[in-house]
Automatic annotation (TrEMBL):
Organism of derivation: Thalassovita mediterranea
Name of this chain's protein: Transposase
Domain of life, source organism: Bacteria
GO terms, molecular function: sequence-specific DNA binding; transposase activity
A biological-process GO annotation: DNA transposition
């Protein structure tokens, strides 16, 4: 057993969006969602990098 928890992409996006709102600190969000603050700091830039894919035309695949 690896001991690692695997979070879904939807969960990561939800947490990262909350972090981008700047309504709570990363530490508060980490406590609320039960994750380490470092993980949230890693998910935020990934969300921002992939956000432009939402607006791609003609693609039927999810980015």
């Amino acid at each position: 057993m690896s001991g690692q928890i695997r979070y879904s992409d939807e969960f990561k996006a939800k947490v990262a969006l909350e972090a981008l709102k700047n309504e709570q600190t990363v530490v508060e969000l980490a406590s609320r969602f039960g994750v380490h603050p470092t993980m949230i700091h890693g998910w935020k830039p990934k969300l921002l990098e992939g956000a432009s894919g939402v607006f791609v035309r003609g693609s039927k695949q999810a980015p």
